[in-house]
Every structure is written in structure tokens, then in C-alpha cells.
Recover the amino acids of this structure.
């Protein structure tokens, strides 16, 4: 029997091996946080004030913990605030995907409540999402500091053998039977930085969004087939393919299970517009990145960035229509509901006109999932790039990428659902 999506998510490190592992992180932090005392960082304090001053949010945050009951180790919104403050005051904690308790995260804190009716209603609130955006922005700023490196990039944490083995699994010279850190160092660490305690990484984001140490290393570890063949489309990212949808509708029930995409909402957000019109009846390719994947993106074909659009959205809203009541696992529902999350989450869209008319104009959409919402393009509007060149990166977590093609594009796919592909590898040809 082939592995299910849930099997892949556990193996890839997206969800805890057991519910115990997810709860343990909360229990561990709750033993420590009361002893800290201390004040909330300003953006977290603003969230607390918003919840307490907004009638609807106060009711929602009070009720969601009651609806979650014993499924949530977090007692109430006040304890939630303390835990969120702890998360954004520290870098992410390494968790060996083979077992053990993960570090505390927004997922751990909110997983039981965002799948409740009150949780769904609260987390689609615009004012709440503006407050969450400030918190996540502050966290991203902290993760660009030296302190984030000092606390996380050490040989007993993210630079430990266990961590580096996990991050090396898609490097050709890594031998899982004789694991070592040498493949990772060869790929990502410059010779002059080998003696540095942080291997040359200046901060957490520098480590997470690391480029290969040189162009030669990039070409060795992520080779690009037939770079001069303009009919060949390459993978924009290391990722596992979620699905390829054809003849996509202008509007559809994206909040239900079934891999539906609603182009009007995906490409325009809540403000309306006609950006989606040329793509009605076209194709959507979507893949999600694993925690161990390389988190930069490459140009999937040669072309020019015509526009980069930022679409505001939600950060933790999960449609309860996506949740299996017999197996209410928010982590799995997160990825099972990727079309929904790509439609409601805060995201950016790069509209790229390919040099090859057979490819046309493509919407490239990187989406940060939940707390993983920092998206960074390397180039401005008007920049012409060659296939395989660096396009941008995610910061501090796993995410998803979509490509939307016009209906006139004839595509022969060389990949299939649930296949793991490497950045710059062949995924399709146009004809």
C-alpha cells in the first residue's frame, strides 16, 4: 500500500510522530515561563490588548479554548499570550524528526483551538491578522540578529550531528549508512568559515535561507538539465508535489476538500480585480517544502518579472471543513488544505513573462504557512532572469509554492503527485 499524505508528513517532519510529542513542548515551556516573570514584547502586548478590547475577539478567544476542551494543553488566551511571547523571543528549536518533542511553536500552541468553530471565526478577523503580522515581523527581525545565532547555531542544537544529518539527506555525497556533517559543510560552508563557531552564519535566517557556498557547488548539488532548452520547465524549489490541477475554475469551493482552486480569490484576494481572467481554464502546479529542504527558489524558465503583488491575508485560519473529525490533526489538515491556505493566507505573486511564448505569462506564488510567513524576492519588477537563477527565499520555515499557467499552454508533466523534486530539476516540457 503506497504511503498516504499523512505518512509523508510524519516522515518529512511536518507533524509530530505522536500527539504526545506535540504536547510535550507546551508542557515543558509551561514549567519554565511562570518563573520568568518579565514583560511582553510590544507587539504581543498589542495582541493582548486587542483581544481584551474587541468584543467579538474576546468572546471568540474565550470560547475557543472551551470548545477545544482537553485537546488543548493551553488553558486560555492569557496563557496563549505568554507562550507566543516565548516563541517570538527565541529562535526555532531543533527537533529530530525521528522522534522526541519538538520545540515550542505557534502550531503547538494553537493546533487544538484553530480547528474549533470559534477559532475559525476569530482567525479570519482582519484586525487580528494585522496584529499577528506585526508579531511575525518582529520575530523575523529578531531572527536576523546575532543573538538568534548565538542561541541556536551551536553544536548541541542546529549544528548538531542529528540536525545536520537531517538537512543533508538531499545532498548527493551524503551517505546515510555512514552519516557525517561533511556533505553539508562542503555544500554550504565556505572554507574560511569552517573554524567559526556558527560556520559563518550570522543569524538564524542566514542559516535557514543559506545559499550554496559557490556557483560550482550549486551546479553540483542542484544540476540543471539542458539549460539552453527553452521548452523545459524546472522545479522552482526543493519540494514534494501536492498536485497538478487542470481546467481550473474562475470560482470554486476552495474551503472544502478536493484540491479545488478558485482563481478569482487565489490571484486577487478579497479586494477584487481581474488579474485572474487570463488563467481561467488553466493549470495550477503546487508543491510544499519540507523542513529539511533548501528554501531558496529558482526561476523555472527564462523571463522577466512584470509585477510583484502583495496580497494581505490570514495567518492561522484553518477551515473546519478540512478537518477529519475522527482524526482532528491540525498539522495534517494544514497541508491537506493547501489550496484553501494558498487562497486565504498572506502571500505574494510574481507575474513572470517567459521568453518562450509557448510558456506565456505565469503567476508564481510563494505562500508562507502559518508562522512561516516571511517571503523575500531578490529582484524588483522589470528584472530579466535566466532559467535557474536565484529568484527569492522563504525565511524561518517550510512553505508552499504555486505556479499558475494560462489555458493556452500545452504542458507535458515529467513528475507526479507526492514525488519529491529538487530545485532546478526538470518537471515539465511545453510543446
Amino acid at each position: 500500500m503506497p504511503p498516504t499524505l499523512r505518512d509523508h508528513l510524519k516522515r518529512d517532519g511536518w507533524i509530530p510522530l505522536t500527539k504526545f510529542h506535540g504536547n510535550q513542548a507546551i508542557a515543558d515551556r509551561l514549567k519554565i515561563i511562570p518563573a520568568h516573570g518579565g514583560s511582553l514584547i510590544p507587539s504581543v502586548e498589542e495582541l493582548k490588548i486587542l483581544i481584551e478590547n474587541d468584543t467579538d475577539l474576546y468572546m471568540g478567544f474565550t470560547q475557543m479554548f472551551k470548545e477545544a476542551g482537553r485537546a488543548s494543553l493551553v488553558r486560555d488566551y492569557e496563557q496563549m499570550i505568554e507562550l507566543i511571547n516565548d516563541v517570538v523571543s527565541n529562535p526555532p528549536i531543533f527537533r529530530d524528526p525521528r522522534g522526541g518533542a519538538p520545540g515550542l511553536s505557534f502550531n503547538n500552541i494553537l493546533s487544538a483551538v484553530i480547528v474549533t468553530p470559534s477559532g475559525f471565526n476569530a482567525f479570519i478577523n482582519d484586525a487580528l491578522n494585522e496584529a499577528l503580522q506585526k508579531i511575525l515581523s518582529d520575530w523575523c527581525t529578531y531572527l536576523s540578529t546575532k543573538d538568534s545565532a548565538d542561541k541556536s547555531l551551536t553544536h548541541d542544537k542546529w549544528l548538531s550531528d542529528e540536525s545536520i544529518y537531517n538537512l543533508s539527506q538531499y545532498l548527493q555525497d551524503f551517505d546515510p549508512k555512514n552519516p557525517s556533517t561533511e556533505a553539508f559543510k562542503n555544500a554550504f560552508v565556505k572554507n574560511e568559515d569552517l573554524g567559526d563557531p556558527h560556520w559563518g552564519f550570522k543569524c538564524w535566517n542566514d542559516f535557514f535561507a543559506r545559499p550554496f557556498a559557490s556557483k560550482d557547488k550549486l551546479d553540483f548539488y542542484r544540476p540543471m538539465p539542458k539549460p539552453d532548452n527553452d521548452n523545459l520547465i524546472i522545479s522552482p524549489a526543493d519540494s514534494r508535489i501536492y498536485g497538478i490541477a487542470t481546467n481550473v475554475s474562475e470560482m470554486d469551493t476552495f474551503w472544502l476538500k478536493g484540491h479545488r482552486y478558485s482563481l478569482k480569490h487565489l490571484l486577487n484576494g478579497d479586494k477584487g480585480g481581474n488579474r485572474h481572467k487570463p488563467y481561467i481554464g488553466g493549470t495550477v502546479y503546487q508543491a510544499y517544502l519540507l523542513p529539511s529542504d533548501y528554501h531558496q527558489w529558482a526561476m523555472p524558465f527564462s523571463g522577466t518579472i512584470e509585477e510583484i503583488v502583495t496580497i494581505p491575508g490570514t495567518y492561522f485560519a484553518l477551515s473546519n471543513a478540512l478537518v477529519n473529525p475522527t482524526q482532528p490533526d491540525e498539522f495534517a489538515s494544514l497541508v491537506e488544505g493547501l489550496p484553501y491556505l494558498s487562497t486565504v493566507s498572506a502571500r505574494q505573486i510574481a507575474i513572470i513573462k517567459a521568453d518562450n511564448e509557448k510558456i506565456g505569462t505565469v503567476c508564481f506564488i510563494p505562500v508562507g504557512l502559518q508562522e512561516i510567513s516571511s517571503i523575500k524576492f531578490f529582484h524588483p519588477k522589470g528584472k530579466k532572469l535566466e532559467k535557474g537563477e536565484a529568484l527569492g527565499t522563504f525565511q524561518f520555515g517550510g512553505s508552499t509554492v504555486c505556479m499558475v499557467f494560462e489555458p493556452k499552454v500545452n504542458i507535458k508533466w515529467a513528475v507526479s503527485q507526492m514525488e519529491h523534486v529538487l530545485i532546478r530539476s526538470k518537471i515539465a516540457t511545453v510543446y
Observations:
- The chain has a mean pLDDT of 87.
- DSSP finds 16 helices and 14 strands in the chain.
